[in-house]
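[SOLVED] Need 3D model of a two-part complex

Original post:
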Amino acid sequence: MSEATSATPLTLSDDEQAMLDGAQGEALALAMRIVTGLARANGAPYLIPIASAHIDSCLYHGVAGLDFAERLASLGGRVKVPTTLNVSSLDLLHPGLVKGDDETMVNGRRLMDAYVSLGASPTWTCAPYQLAEARPPFGTNVAWAESNAIVFCNSVLGARTDRYGDFLDICAAITGRAPYAGLHVTENRAGQIVFDLTGLPQALRDNELFPAVVGQLIGRRTGTAIPVIVGLPATTGEDALKALGAAAASSGGVALFHVVGITPEAATLEIALQGNPPLEVVTVTRDMIAAARAELSTVDGAALDAISVGTPHFSLAECGQLAELLADGPAIDAAVAFYASTSRRILEAARPLGFVDVCERAGVQFVVDTCTYITPILAPDTRVVMTNSGKWAYYAPGNLGVDVIFATLAECVASARAGHPVLEREPWGT
Amino acid sequence: MGDLTGKVLYGGTASGEVMVLDEALSFWGGIDRQTGAIIDEHHPQRGSSVAGKVLVMPYGRGSSSSTSVFAETIRAGSGPLALLLLEPDVILVLGAMVAGELYDKRCPVVVVPPDDYSRLATGQLVQVVAQMGDTACIQMTDAVPA
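Solution:
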């Protein structure tokens, strides 16, 4: 018969069974029904304790999400593990910046309040891994939602989370448990598809946009399989890996990637593959890179209305790079709006270093607690936006109805000053 | 023609018209939650609506937020009546579970083996009977008159 009838039954500990039966309150019982329901759906044999959670459900997507959070809160729900909150629908530090409809503004705020009342920390960032206390150690089991946070957590930190959706995140936080399945299981973390970049010119591999373009490419070609990348420069840092993972989790369902010699489960190709033969080896060519890069721009004209950087949220280092580019030289053209998204914590850390002042004097509008591609921040007549983010470039045309130009941070600054796109031809060729 | 079977990820029953998606779809950014229309610019069936359909697609794609959007479409009546997948997708199962908890509206989610999956075609009328722990039954009731 099919595997439908051969699934391992879920075994619960006495404590877990008590939670499910309502012995520890109705909120825990509801959260446990969701956790065990998912465990049964994905064939988990038992539940495992988790060390932290990152909640994506705090972004408003309609009444159902609000009803769920308020139901948990009204039943007395409380998180059992340290819990961070993803971006919301509002920028609480810059009121008026988000021009949402009444429903989103009112219910979005109620949703934020509900999650804080459940005991989650008001971090409001898609990049919790930039906060020292929220970085789980290697090998730790956690329950993180938000696709870029999931892929960073698994790939760069080597902590373990499955590709969770909204609601499981808060239910795992309240119960302190997650199903033992998916990427919590060592064997399921083996690399499957090898992407060999070693034949590409060094100048291309060293380009700032290269990691995001590789992410776009591997997301398209692997779906939900686990890619192993060979040939990224040894100097590739966390911000580059953030860009790569975010792009791969947008164009595909990538929740874990390995980079040989760089990420913690990939000291060698054989280790990344856990000794298995790869399902496929893709020798990446210049043409494949050029095609993936071309997918991230929808227009090639002279118009430019806005710049948006910081998706996922800018790190402190990226705030510093933007400040350095803007420190000397002309201010941003008044006709071009320049948005930089980051978390309130990173913004506070950047302030004493002078980064915020330099950027704001040059004309940059910082956005915190939310992001420019999920909430109405751009002026309604915005048509062409330049970004250095593969993720923003992937989603914004559909979400916002704008055209997008994918470019480096330096090109974004040069273009903002000029009032029109200023792009380097090299190293992409033709 | 015999009935199709599948593995139940979330139980429920539904009868309706099949809509087969040619490509995976992210509910977040891909569906208008008020109308159920496909709005993903990259999707070949942009403009069609999933509302009231037995939706057939290979797997979910993209964001964790698809869970919230899926639950909201079930609440609002703009979502599918049942979801038949080729590969399990926890993000969508969670949305169905929460809509069931909050509103007692059950949208069954079933994984269908490849041979059966390939027999599903847009326009067919089917009845989905899915009980957790049991094999799901997808009964072809009739074809839609041309």
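Edit: Chain A touches chain B through 48 residues (CB under 8 Å).
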